[in-house]
Every structure is written in C-alpha cells, then in structure tokens.
C-alpha cells in the first residue's frame, strides 16, 4: 500500500493541490490512516511531499534546458506556490540558495546524478 501511495505522490508532485486529503481520497483511506502509514516510516506526508519536490527542483536546476527558466518558475513547476518559501526550504535542505546551487553545481552540467 505504501509503495502505491509513494508512486501516486511522485506522479502528482507538480500539482500544487497535492495534499494528504487528496492522497487519502485517491486511495480510499482516511487521512488519519495515511498519516499513520507515514509516521511508521519515520516521516510525515507533508515532509515527504516537500522532500520529493525539492529533489525535483534540485535536479531541474542542473539541466541545461532549464538554465534560462527563473528559479521561481522552477519552484512553481514542482508545486511550490511561493518562491520565497521554496528558497527558504531549499537552503535549509541543501545549505545554499537555489541560485547558488544553480551557479555552483548546475553551471554547464548535464544532470547530476544522485
């Protein structure tokens, strides 16, 4: 069940409306049960969604084809509704701003694996 839910989340990461409620509804379970499943895995639904979105943004910032796309647009593409919020959580997760990441890691690279 958990792997099916994780796949669903990955398929819908770019949907800004992705939430525990929409995930639970799609799998015919209660929101409470969904939270319990994630708690057993040592995280929360919200943290997992944020983590996966951050990973998507981080990867996108390393692609040459995204180099002329604003960081706010990249964040929005991956479901973040606020560029400021995205920048804060990106820095907290990776120790540098999205712009610093793009300039340091993504500059001229085809996607970095990992």
CATH hierarchy: architecture = Orthogonal Bundle
Query: Major sheet: size, sense and barrel closure?
Result: none
Q: Which fold name corresponds to the CATH topology?
A: Arc Repressor Mutant, subunit A
The count of strands amounts to: 0
The helix content is 55-70%
Relevant CATH superfamily: Homeodomain-like
Strand content bin: under 5%
User: What is the count of helical runs?
Assistant: 7
Number of separate domains: 1
Cα-based radius of gyration, to the nearest Å: 15 Å
The 3D shape can be described as elongated
Description:
The chain is an all-alpha fold and about 110 residues long. It has a single domain (about 1-105), classed as Arc Repressor Mutant, subunit A (Orthogonal Bundle). About 60% of the residues lie in helices and about 0% in strands. The chain is built from seven helices and no strands. It has helices spanning about 1-10, 20-25, 30-40, 45-60, 70-75, 85-95, 100-105. α2 (about 20-25) crosses α3.
Summed up:
By secondary structure, the chain is mostly helical. Helix content is 62%, strand content 0%.
């Amino acid at each position: 069940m958990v792997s099916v839910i994780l796949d669903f989340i990955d398929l819908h990461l770019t949907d800004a409306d992705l939430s525990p409620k929409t995930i639970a509804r799609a799998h015919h379970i209660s929101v409470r049960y969904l939270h319990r499943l994630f708690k057993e895995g040592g995280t929360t639904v919200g943290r997992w969604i944020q983590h996966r979105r951050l990973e998507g943004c981080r990867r996108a910032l390393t692609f040459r084809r995204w180099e002329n796309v604003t960081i706010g647009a990249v964040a929005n593409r991956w479901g973040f509704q606020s560029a400021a919020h995205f920048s804060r959580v990106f820095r907290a997760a990776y120790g540098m701003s999205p712009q610093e990441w793009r300039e340091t890691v993504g500059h001229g690279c085809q996607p970095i694996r990992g």
